[in-house]
Amino acid sequence: MLDSLVGNERAKETLRRMLRQGRVPAALLFAGEEGLGKKSFALELARALNCKERRGVEGCGACAACARISKFQYPAADERDEHKKVIWSEHRDVGLVRPYNRNILVDAIRDLERESNFRPVEGAARVFVIENAESLNEASSNALLKTLEEAPPTTHIILITSRPSGLLPTIRSRCQTVRFAPLAAEELESFLVKNGKRAGAEARLAAQLASGRPGVALGLNLDTYRARRDAMLGVVEALAAGGDRSRLLRAAEELGDAKNKEEYEPRLDALEILVRDLWLLALGGRGALVNQDLRERLARLAEGLRPARAASWLTRIEELRGQLAVNVNRRAATDALFLSMSAD
Ligand SMILES: [Zn+2]
């Protein structure tokens, strides 16, 4: 049932309308950021088309067909040959294609083309999902165009992408687009709680950090986030206390240290989120804090902090990100960031 999925009510309505009218297009494009559940929606549509005990126009979610549709054995990322063909679910009419090394191989689309010509084997429709469709290269795009033109009415191809502009216009124009959007943080929080995924403050923090993307909220490791946040809290405290230079330089040294390379960007993210919360508090506490669990501690730091000062810290962090994109010395740039923040 589509209602087992969280959010994106408009997408649900669009799909239900197609099902009710018996007019599910041959080609659909599901567009929206990563982590919004586009693939789950695609598989739910495959269920609706192949369920043995439909509820209205939707899949029951419980029959043998529904159960097998979402079961895939994915090949390892480095198995090139396995990415040259359709990866089948345990249901013989539902398969998907995914990129190998950021490229959808033309052989995979040729296999899809061949398979798309067959009548359904056990259900009522053949459904093919193309993951990361922006990874179609020129050859695979052309092969897909041919498939889209020739597929029989019992075949449906669902392209999934977070970057629709990366697709050839000729492909986009042959697909009916369904757009996906992030959820309100409250909606995601209550989904996490209701489904027993996370409780209380954990659910709130995950929903805020994930910016309304359920897939991201479910995959977050909050312990890791809090460890990074603790490291950056020291920086924020030193700044708010008037800029203890030696403490800031020690923090910059640790952050910029090459052995923490993998940690650099996530910590910078954690710092930015802390500063944004401080800024909101300095403005009078309007808007939802991400780090709601630290509200009291952050509120003390925000006392006497001018909003403009916090805002300029945010600008500095963004400037640093711009510099890092062109490969400056990270260590020196981090020293400069913290010193300029303390001088703001
Ligand atoms: Zn079913």
Structural notes for this entry:
This protein has about 350 residues and is of the alpha/beta class. It folds into two domains: about 1-180, 3-Layer(aba) Sandwich (Rossmann fold), CATH 3.40.50; about 220-344, Zinc Finger, Delta Prime, domain 3 (Up-down Bundle). The protein is built from 15 helices and six strands. It has helices spanning about 10-20, 40-50, 65-70, 105-115, 140-150, 170, 185-195, 200-210, 215-220, 220-240, 245-255, 260-280, 295-300, 305-325, 330-344, and strands spanning about 25-30, 85-90, 95, 125-130, 155-160, 175-180. It has a six-stranded mixed β-sheet, with helices on both faces. Helix 10 (about 220-240) packs antiparallel against helix 11 and helix 12 (about 260-280) crosses helix 13. The longest helix is centred in the C-terminal third of the chain and has 22 residues, at about 260-280. The protein starts with 8 loop residues before the first helix and ends with a helix. Bound molecules: zinc ion. Zinc ion binds near residues 53, 63 and 65.
CATH superfamily of the largest domain: P-loop containing nucleotide triphosphate hydrolases
Radius of gyration: 24 Å
Using the coordinates above, name the CATH class of the largest domain.
Alpha Beta
Content of β-strand: 5-15%
Reported for the largest beta sheet, the result is: 6 strands, mixed
Strand order of the largest sheet: 2-3-4-5-1-6
Structural class: alpha/beta
The number of helical segments is 15
Summed over residues and divided by their number, the pLDDT gives a mean of: 93
Q: Quote the CATH topology of the largest domain.
A: Rossmann fold
